[in-house]
């Protein structure tokens, strides 16, 4: 305690003597910027009394900062006045990089040459190419980066040197001239192997028959090396040692492999530990198809990734344990994460009005890796309650099985609907981009209306049983905020109506959209959807089984579901066929703010036989969007180009979510 009391006065005196660092010689705006950027580095200096060596350090940091902002001829002198360190700046002219050019013959165009020269500076200093400050050390880095790119592109003898840097005094731009001796393109020859049999060599060579004879780019070299290593991982030689030497000579590139393949192993046991709630057999079953077979490490990795993607486990560590008898055991260490979540959400749009919801999910229900989900939702149009459970690894394959029950009440324009039902579905995703969902469902539906006739409404009380197939191909660059790529869905459904009236129907619905990125600020969206439902008897098709169109993802000069035939009271009736087309130019304004100009057209037809692509309803409009991680917030107005009697002149829409 006595020692502590003696220290406190010293600390107090030290705080009183904390140095002030003052920058002079530059304008006020620059001074504020430099002081803010220097603050983290000067904390130690400014918290202590001013000394000559601390002033020297402060001057060094400021000089370095000036150089990195393009003041190549700056100077900083320090002085001490009392307990104040004064940094006097002579900044001189600020320089920026200008054009990057070469008089040599090269496969690099002007844009590519510029981009690869600037890359180290842009990534290292977080600046743009347009206003990149001249920093002398980055000239050498840029030259090296251009040379490395050429080598990675199979010009392995390429040599890039700096001819000169020339300042344009009128602009302050430092133009760079390079000499590029590109050399000849190198071609891949057949790899050589040491340490393995000729038969094994032939098996490996079959893995990349099309690469030999191609340019020896880094990408192709890495691909060959990966294929060779993967071969031994797949064929039981898990501990094989694969060394490779890359030889460049006479415009040819040869990969020389030296391999000690070691022993081939067969998988025997799966040992799981660390799991508390999850059944061990549920974890081990992911690997069961590998047991008593030559150990395939690639398949084991895929099984591990499936476990991690389930969201149940925060860690899965697989350790192969070789045994002396030629068998291998897998030790699987598990760490379970949080699998139960409860959340609420709130939202709004121009059709649903206020949206309130409560959801519950358990990714590991009963410890069996089943996914239980339940939610209740209120909107201005009705209520929804549903509960479902999913077996994500149905029959041990890449197929998930889901069964759900639901109850809903909806109030579209003109009628009210109550439905209660259940559905079972199987989803298979053989690739990252393609999925297929088969479903079988049934439900009881009751509809009523105070404004529609019985003929307009169709059957009021009925049971709908349906079986269908939904296919999706998604090649977009982002599922939430896409700007490039194709997305398509094909729905086919066969169903029956039994109740006030009895009929059957076949339904097909095709949705296509394509985005094309023009540049960093602009992209195009095109869309075409078409659907047909063919009932055995049109008069017996209920209103809620018909197609409706109009609204945020359709012809935007109409309210939601407002396009097409209407009842005598003016309410939407839907139809047996529809189509929608759209074209849209989107431009980024600033940050997450976007604007677009769109043109929509389409129609809904009472009878499927009337489907025609002539005389559609047409709309033109503007959209403002804010792109958020959850999806875009959209404000849109569509103007009716060929307004018919009783149709709106235009409609405003507000919603959250991607457009088709």
UniProtKB/TrEMBL annotation:
Entry-linked InterPro entries: Bac_surfAg_D15, BamA/TamA_POTRA, D15-like, POTRA
Keyword ATP-binding annotated: no
Alphabetical keyword list: Membrane, Transmembrane, Transmembrane beta strand
Keyword Transferase: no
Localization per Swiss-Prot or TrEMBL: Membrane
Superkingdom per UniProt: Bacteria
Major place of residence: membrane
UniProt name for this protein: Outer membrane protein assembly factor
Species of the source: Rubritalea tangerina
